[in-house]
Specification:
Blueprint (H helix, E strand, L loop, with lengths): L1 H5 L15 H14 L5 E2 H10 L3 H17 L6 E2 L4 H4 L10 H21 L17 H10 L16 H4 L2 H11 L12
Antiparallel strand pairs: 1-2
Length: 191
Amino acid sequence: MVNIVFALPSGNVPFVLESNDPDIVDDVQELCSKYLENGKIPMEKLLKVMLADFSEDGFIRSFVLFFISTILCPLTYNSVNPKYLYTLRDGSVIPNLDYGPLCLSHLFNEIDKFHKKVFEVDIVAEYNRNLWVGGCLPLLTIVYMDFLDFSNGGGPRYLGVPRIQHIVNADFTCVHNLDRKRTSHKSYGVL
């Protein structure tokens, strides 16, 4: 489904987020040192490195890291997961990477963390605090839209591929109005 929403080709190289090989760990630490600032990789630093890197491999690596960190697998804070560098250290694999499982795995992990925060709260006052969800939430919404039954008409217009390119606010509003239960404005699942 990630491939339909983003029109990404299905690759045959999975993402590796860790390694026991000391040479690979050294490579990743060296790459990480280019991006690190105060022990983290802030988005601003990633952009500076990307724009200052005139080598093709370096720019592409930074761009893919930026794409993953902002679109496919965003975190709840504005920084980058350095574990992606275990895969991105070898620029030759980038065209063959399988982004779908990475995106979905990250999204499900973030939803699970959110679920645990919501249902493990003991004090009612805690419900008034902000709870953030990482992951590609537009993906979740667009996939939800694809599985709604609009056989009675009135649904969103035909959505081409890539879905994310064809979705507009009116489509979200249409689904919001059609799929909402009339007895409760906070409940969905009519269609």
